[in-house]
Amino acid sequence: MSTSRISLTRLTDKKCVPCNLKELRPMNEDSARTLMPQVPEWNLVNDAGIMKLRRSWTVKTFSKGLNFFKIVAGLAESEGHHPDLHLVGWNNVVIEIWTHAIGGLTENDFILAAKIDKLDVVDLLRRKPSD
Ligand SMILES: C[C@H](O)[C@H](O)[C@H]1CNC2=NC(N)=NC(=O)C2=N1
Asked: Domain range for residue 26?
């Protein structure tokens, strides 16, 4: 699947595919930016030359943050594509997603991010710090 042809199928209707079947090079920034509207809460970051998706959440309690990560872990296993669970703080969590085998972003990363955003975890996360 070529990244120059970004399909219009919604990310959440897609499934991650094994990385070894993917194109050999990371998605370029223009292609990444066409997908960002479907994951509006995420940031596109350049980490020492590697483009990644990053998002943070405010959590209601430390252990709820950990519970959130466990739910994300279950999603990742079912998708066969895994986030970097960067941080569980006393009131916040941070996740980064990139395709390690490719050394950058592939559509898998956006599918996973979109599916994380669809998880029903409202009881674990604050919509805003004052919640
Ligand atoms: C074969 C299977 O696709 C690979 O082992 C997967 C597993 N999960 C993965 N997750 C991420 N983020 N990057 C990878 O390169 C990766 N490789």
From this structure: 3-8+21-124
Question: How many structural domains comprise the chain?
Answer: 1
103 lines ligand 1 (CB under 6 A): no
Is 20 touching ligand 1 by the criterion CB < 6 Å?
Answer: yes
Indicate the residue type of 48: A
User: pLDDT tens across 12-63, in order?
Assistant: 999 999 877 655 789 999 999 999 999 999 999 999 999 999 999 999 999 9
Q: How far is the CA of 64 from the centre of ligand 1 (A)?
A: 26
Query: What pTM, to 2 d.p., does this model score?
Result: 0.90
Q: Which run of H or E residues covers position 95? A: strand 92-97
In a domain, 129, yes or no: no
- The C-alpha torsion from 72 through 74 and 78 to 83, rounded to 10°, is 40
0.90 surpassed by complex ipTM: yes
Q: Is 108 in the pocket of ligand 1 (CB under 6 A)?
A: no
